[in-house]
Amino acid sequence: MNRINVMKPWLGTEEIAAVSEVISTGWIAQGPRVAAFEEAFAARMEAGHAVAASSCTTALHLALVVAGIGPGDDVVVPSFSFIATANAPTYVGARPVFADVDHSTGNLSAMTVEAALTPATRAVIAVDQGGVPVDLASLRALCDPLGITVLEDAACGAGSRYAGAPVGAGAEVAAWSFHPRKILTTGEGGMVTTSRKDWAARARTLREHAMSVSAADRNANVLAPAEEYTEVGFNYRLTDLQAAVGLVQLGRLDAVVRRRRELAAGYAKAFADIEGLRTVTDPPWGETNYQSFWIEVLPGFGTDRDGLLAALAEADISARRGIMAAHLEPAYRNRDTGSASLQVTERLSANTLILPLFHEMTESEQGRVIEAVGRRGRKA
């Protein structure tokens, strides 16, 4: 039997042709393709402005900087997230304060955020975990009157919808990932979207060492104008090679999400009558892209989470442990990160796993996964 991977990006001849075209122009660094990708991405996500970056982590960093978050500030974040969500506030000298998550969605809620607020809270980073849309309106209803910026970490969110619109559309600022594990990939890469023209302009400058004249503008002139460095900036640029891939991938997005939702429905139907399994589902306020299809292994199932992972591995199926609990990692274990209860986070982190799901997954491959899970479970 062939190994079934947990994720496989959907890349084809169109991406190869797009990259080849960029190479033929001789302009492979940040340039016209990046600008075109930013424009297309902003339109697709119904955002006012989009600024490409080298990763979602650097996009989160830029978003916090332009939002004015810095030393002495607290930023409420979920511990139930990839560690970059907590790292970004640390980069700007702020304190990440961990909040618990809603059990059914794995996302922050107004209730869990309120329990973690401090007098120094200046921002909240709300994650669309695994592609499940966060209930942004309830968070903004809590935070906006307090002057707290809600930053949406939409790393997993491309193609998910909230209240009839793309996730991130209602955020003052959001950050996106194009890592190979995401359903829209440029290899590595990220994006900042924002409703604020001034934040977009500053992020655009900061990603390029805070140069007063962009590389594209300097290249357009035979005698390049002298540049100044207006503040301490960063090298967070995306390349035209990556943006060319991103433009093709953006055109694939609807088809990818449609297929992933079909596969997720197949899993949900197959597991509905197995005792002790809970599957991720759409929340009442939106639709998930199923960037990750995760299940929770509960009492009553035939084994625990790690036992099921081992059984899948024996069948040459590569599943993954669920989302980490960042507050338990060595990097944050001994830091002051607030005092909110994180019981749900620890339960989900210990008992969930991510099953294989990718656009080109065959019925036979999904059947193997379903059979391997079913062998360890019991009918309800």
Describe the structure in your own words.
With 380 residues, this protein is α/β, with parallel strands linked by helices. The protein has two domains: 13-251, Type I PLP-dependent aspartate aminotransferase-like (Major domain) (Aspartate Aminotransferase, domain 2, 3-Layer(aba) Sandwich); 253-379, Aspartate Aminotransferase, domain 1 (Alpha-Beta Complex). It is built from 13 helices and 16 strands. A seven-stranded mixed beta sheet has the order 1-9-8-5-4-2-3, with helices on both faces. The chain has a four-stranded antiparallel beta sheet with strand order 11-13-15-14. Strands 7-6-12 form a three-stranded antiparallel beta sheet, with no helix packed on it. Helix 1 runs antiparallel to helix 9. It starts with 12 loop residues before the first helix and ends with a strand.
What is the CATH architecture assignment of the largest domain?
A: 3-Layer(aba) Sandwich
Which regions have little confidence, pLDDT < 50, spanning 5+ residues? none
**What is the CATH superfamily of the largest domain?**
Type I PLP-dependent aspartate aminotransferase-like (Major domain)
Arithmetic mean of pLDDT: 96
**Secondary structure: helix percent:** 25-40%
List how many beta strands DSSP finds.
16
CATH third-tier fold name of the largest domain: Aspartate Aminotransferase, domain 2
Largest sheet: 7 strands, mixed
Rough shape?
globular
- Terminal Cα span: 30 Å
Note the beta-strand portion: 15-25%
The ordered string of helix (H) and strand (E) elements is HHEHEHEHEHEEEEEHHHEEEEHEHHEHE
- Overall structural class, as computed from helix and strand content, comes to alpha/beta
Indicate the radius of gyration in whole angstroms.
Answer: 21 Å
Class of the largest domain, according to the CATH hierarchy? Alpha Beta
The helix tally amounts to 13
Please indicate the count of domains: 2
Strand order of the largest sheet: 1-9-8-5-4-2-3
